[in-house]
Amino acid sequence: MDRLSLGTLGQHLQRLRQETGLSLSQLASAAGIAKSNLSRLEQGNGNPTLDTIWRLAVQLNVPFGTLVAPISVPLGEDGVQVRLIDQGKETPQVDAYWMRCAPHTTRHAEAHTPGARESLTLISGQLEAGPEGETRRLHAGDTLAFAADRPHLYRTGERWATLLLTVIYAEGDPSP
User: Measured on CA atoms in the order 109, 115, 82, 46, is the torsion positive or negative?
Assistant: First the structure.
């Protein structure tokens, strides 16, 4: 992530933390990260992983999309790039993402909040996706919907895979 995006994320993160009344120590502890790492992140330094951003969003009780909304560049790590396309303001909350995965990449995603669902449409490449132990092989044009409130994964083969992904949160639960 570039410096401007890191600074924007840090300022937004700090504002959300302060609005919830959490101290640096409280949020860091709840998210399972070092207080010094959270402090650096709020100052626009560091290089947060997607999992770290997810955990922070969960502890702030906001959708992942709300935390990353001010950032216009894709977030990425280990061959996976994700960018928020749009975030619904109605009930249920729906977030839409563009996602791209490099060849021979496996992305394990933590469970979202109870009742959350994902739907993805593969634009190009091939992808194995779904809840762990119940994945399905997709080809360009295929769509898959599944319960995202348990661990799930995305695994590519020989080529890049590009997909559109939506997360639909259970009604009354705006968190990731």
Answer: negative
Closest-CA residue to 99 (of 86, 80, 118): 80
Model confidence over 79-135: pLDDT tens digits?
999 999 999 989 999 999 999 999 999 999 988 888 999 999 999 999 999 999 999
DSSP code, position 174: -
Backbone angles phi, psi at 90, to 5 degrees: -105, 180
Give the HSE-up count for residue 126: Cα atoms under 13 Å, Cβ half-sphere: 6
CA distance to 11, 19, 24, 46, 101, per residue, from 15 (Å): 6, 6, 12, 18, 31
Helix intervals (H) in the chain:
3-20, 24-31, 35-42, 50-60, 64-68
CA–CA separation, 83 vs 63, rounded Å? 14
Sheet holding 117-124, edge to edge: 75-77, 80-87, 94-101, 161-168, 117-124, 143-147
Residue 62: closest CA among 4, 108, 118, 20: 20
How far, in Å, CA of 37 to CA of 103, rounded?
Answer: 30
Q: How far apart are CA 36 and CA 28, in angstroms?
A: 9
